[in-house]
Amino acid sequence: MAVISAVHSVSSLHLQSHLQRLNNGEFFFSTRPRKMKVPLPCHHHHHQRPIYSSNAFGCSDRTSIIINSTSGSSTATSAAEGSLSEVEKIKQRFRTWQWKGQYSINYFVSSDSPQQLQANHPPLLLVHGFGASIPHWRRNIKILAQNYTVYAIDLLGFGASDKPPGFQYTMETWAQLILDFLNEVIQKPTVLIGNSVGSLACLIAASDSNQTLVRGIVLLNCAGGMNNKAIVDDWRIKLLLPLLWLIDFLLKQKGIASAIFERVKQRENLRNVLSSVYGNKESVDEELVEIIREPADAPGALDAFVSIVTGPPGPNPVVLMPNISLPVLLLWGDEDPFTPIDGPVGKYFSSLPSQQENVKLFLLEGVGHCPHDDRPDLVHEKLLPWLASL
């Protein structure tokens, strides 16, 4: 989830206190006054994955994971799967795709729908936000898979995908990864569904004039960029830029960055920040904390964290959207402290439906930065009819 899009109000800008907060791991700032946010770590370690036959990965959540053709094994596996959590079921179906012949990318595919429905409906690709991974969609996959083939991907540097040492992460890199995944793996016109920086990556991919495999886009609280430096038209960001540059400098010092990262990934810090960005506090359970916390111990996680926070913000959605003629659905939580609907990015997107006929916007009341996990029922209520209309 994109913890890097937030800005603190000028009334609390005192360099000494900011440096003290920096020492405490609190260096992303909210547009909501007097709410200091703790950043989320962004990377899952590689899971030890059981080896299944090729047909295991395509099986339904309602069926067994087939290891062999004997009915006894199938029955036993079905019983075992029934005792698993949704996250464990998802992890058991992870696949690996080699991107550019050198990077291992983790992905998931599932469908409960009949073959006829799959043929008539476009596949869906779910793209997580900063700090998250495929299991962050655990409350959506089963519902969506009833009528659609659902893919989900861990972007490079996140989840169980590779985190190459010294890699310089950019929004354009993730967008190209999405396009290559469409071309090499899905190979059909696909609806892209993203949250936060995942939304922005989907938007950049869809804006590529050479792409032919994007059928529509769903943006869930789209980020303005990969990090804080994106929203340069916000006067608060302009005032904060010197501090952001200082933070960038400090994070590039290995010892300082490591100390900050160790504090950031503490379970209590994660629970606090999740509670502050979710409107529905009941959704902030131990499973969610673990989904965000788990990747922080992976090799390359710290390097990826620093590269993403200190790197270029990437293309601005304000520049990208006028070139998009595909159907676009905007779902926006009205209690998002990172990309609030009354902030520069939120205001721009909320103005689009009156300017572009291909854009629809629904404001979700009492929902935070991650609507799909915060209040999945409200998201499905708007998303499913829109998908059916395609």
UniProtKB/TrEMBL annotation:
GO molecular function: chlorophyllase activity
Family matches, as InterPro entries: AB_hydrolase_1 (IPR000073), AB_hydrolase_fold (IPR029058)
Cellular compartments per GO CC: chloroplast
Top-level lineage group: Eukaryota
Domain AB hydrolase-1: 122-376
Any one GO BP annotation for this protein: chlorophyll metabolic process
Descriptive protein name: AB hydrolase-1 domain-containing protein
Organism: Vigna mungo
Organismal lineage: Eukaryota, Viridiplantae, Streptophyta, Embryophyta, Tracheophyta
